[in-house]
Amino acid sequence: DIQMTQSPSSLSASVGDRVTITCRASQGISNYLAWYQQKPGKVPKLLIYAASTLQSGVPSRFSGSGSGTDFTLTISSLQPEDVATYYCQKYNSAPLTFGQGTKVEIK
Amino acid sequence: QVQLVQSGAEVKKPGASVMVSCKTSGYTFTSYGIIWVRQAPGQGLEWMGWISAYNGNTNYAQKLQGRVTMTTDTSTSTAYMELRSLRSDDTAVYYCARLRSQSIAAAANYWGQGTLVTVSS
User: Fold this and answer.
1) Could you read off the pLDDT of A59-96 as tens digits, one per residue?
2) What is the average pLDDT across A6-19?
């Protein structure tokens, strides 16, 4: 099975900072990559699919890039409401594995 | 508007079975696939499996093969997940989620509110 590895596991940044989270697949998955945001005690929310397509209603400060094995989620200007854990997920074929998550906090 | 409403919290003893329902509305049920995802306390998201609401085809996580069954009832636009031979490490919040297409190769853009299943003697 393809493994999904996120880095870092957690980060702390200031409001307004640019934040980048990386997700690496152990084998190529083309652009079949989604990013989800899960705020504390809440349901996961789709942010980006097809590696770089912003889900409707998601603020434009979120962006995704990558193809093959290396992907990034970028928050261009971190806001207090972005405190959450972020997960990548591959969906090219089963199993639809999630990364282990990246917890984002405000410094 | 699209909604997925899950059944309520359950407490089960080890060895028992649990069935979680996911009643959908606001879209054509048979046009989209559904996945089930669980999250143990303080842990990350774990994909459990996929079901086609069109024809009932399924694909389960290997670690759950033989213990999990996913089904749908097209007459009520409801998906079900049954997990048998429960163990303490099955304690988790269980989510259903609708995919962006019928295919398994799609992201999940609508989620149920989650169902807490607690396994304890």
Assistant:
1) 999 999 999 999 999 999 999 999 999 999 999 999 99
2) 98
8 Å CB contact of B45 and A101: yes
A50/B119 Cα distance (integer angstroms): 37
Residue A50 with chain B: CB contacts under 8 Å: 107
| CA distances (Å), origin A66, targets A29, A50, A59, B54, B82 | 10, 10, 19, 32, 37
To the nearest 5 percent, what fractions of chain A are helix, strand and coil?
5, 50, 50
CB-facing half-sphere around the CA of A94: CA atoms within 13 A:
16
Nearest chain A Cα distance for residue B80, angstroms = 19
pLDDT score recorded for residue A93:
94
Determine the number of helices (DSSP H) and then strands (DSSP E) in chain B: 0, 11
Let me know how many helices (H) and strands (E) chain A has, helices first: 0, 10
Strand order in the sheet with A4-7: A4-7, A19-25, A70-75, A62-67
What confidence tier does B32 reach under pLDDT thresholds 50, 70, 90? very high
Q: Taking Cα atoms as reference points, which of A24, A56, A44 lies closest to residue A86?
A: A44
Alpha-carbon distance A98 to nearest alpha carbon in chain B (angstroms): 6
